[in-house]
Amino acid sequence: MLSQNIEGFSTSSLNQMADALQSWYSPYRWSHPWRVLWGQTRSPWCVWVSEVMLQQTVIAAVIPKYIAFMKRFPSAQDFAEANEETIRPYVSGLGYYRRFALLHKGALQVAQEGYPQSRAMWQDVAGVGPYTSAALASITLGEAVGVVDGNVERVLARIFNIQEIVATPQWKSIFFSFMSRLTKLGDPGDLNQSVMELGQTICRISSPHCSECPISNFCLANKNQTQSQCPKPKAPKEFLKLSLLATLHTDGDKVFLIKRSEDSLLLKGTIGFPIKEIQKKPLRSQHFVKHNITKYKITATFTHSLEAPQGEGIWVKRKNMESFLLSSLDQKIWRLAQKNIFAEH
């Protein structure tokens, strides 16, 4: 079985692989701002924030947000002491706001109890799951624990010529064990990051640069020219179609926003426009936006109302709207509305 090949990978080969990865990674690794800050401060906060921001968000979009965030909140204590209104502008545009609500809760824990001293302790911090705890423990504590993301899955699938879907709990467990073995043979954080970065830069989904790969001599897919078949892609994600209508209540230069409840269908706990689902008939409007959230494929449009809104909410001046709208869906609706409702003003 393929799993037996991975589990039986010789210690000598593993040592050679670790040496090759570290020799490649040290001079070629990207100088992301979180790596620079970690090198300067050795504060886990630098790494923790980057891990939260990078969830479901591309590196290029994260970098400017990260720099601004860390200038304003250079420590977990600074973030723990901040309120939602202070935090909001610094996380706007990064998508799923619940991540940052949990980060705030976790920062309060750390401010009171200090930083965790093991992966197991990190998993007791709010919002820190198996992946993030492994990354933090390996990078900031030097704990020999593997990190497995999509890039690691692809690299290892090609090393062992696995021509099947590997984004499964079973394969993740096998890869985690392999990476944990590997991280014992050098700097755990560097070894984890080297494999992830190898997947980002060289062992890419399409057109991998195998001639530049530091561990190509171990790669069975390279030997058999089966890179395009390793791993087998997941079945396309199935989305539920959802039609939404947002209501923009305006009063002069002010717009009405609500705080969504924690049991909302979408965008729990965020501030945004009153939105309702349209179930009986599709939207009929020339002005609409498309957006995907988790399992939903959304078509959303808006209606403009000068009537007093029902329910509790806040009135926000148009010039301040960008700092209040945290979700990408609300931001898309707002841009569309500006072009159509306020175009004449």
What would CATH call the class of the largest domain?
A: Mainly Alpha
Rounded to the nearest angstrom, the radius of gyration is: 23 Å
Biggest sheet, open or closed, and with what strands and sense? 7 strands, mixed
- What is the name of the CATH superfamily of the largest domain? Hypothetical protein, domain 2
Helical proportion? 40-55%
> Which architecture of the largest domain does the CATH hierarchy give at level 2?
Orthogonal Bundle
Query: DSSP strand (E) fraction?
Result: 5-15%
Q: How many domains?
A: 2
Question: What is the helix/strand order?
Answer: HHHHHHHHHHHHHHEEEEEEEHH
What is the number of helices? 16
Structural class: alpha+beta
Could you tell me the mean pLDDT? 90
Coarse shape: globular
User: What is the terminal-to-terminal distance?
Assistant: 68 Å
Which regions are unreliable across 5 or more consecutive residues at pLDDT < 50?
Answer: none
CATH topology of the largest domain: Endonuclease III, domain 1
User: In terms of quaternary structure, what is this?
Assistant: single chain
Number of strands: 7
Topology:
Blueprint: H1 2-7, H2 11-28, H3 33-41, H4 44-53, H5 59-72, H6 76-81, H7 84-91, H8 98-113, H9 119-122, H10 130-140, H11 150-159, H12 169-183, H13 188-201, H14 220-224, E1 240-251, E2 254-259, E3 271-272, E4 275-277, E5 289-293, E6 296-305, E7 314-317, H15 321-324, H16 328-340
Parallel strand pairs: 1-6
Antiparallel strand pairs: 1-2, 1-4, 2-3, 2-7, 5-6
Helix pairs in contact: 2-13, 3-4, 4-10, 10-13, 11-13, 12-13
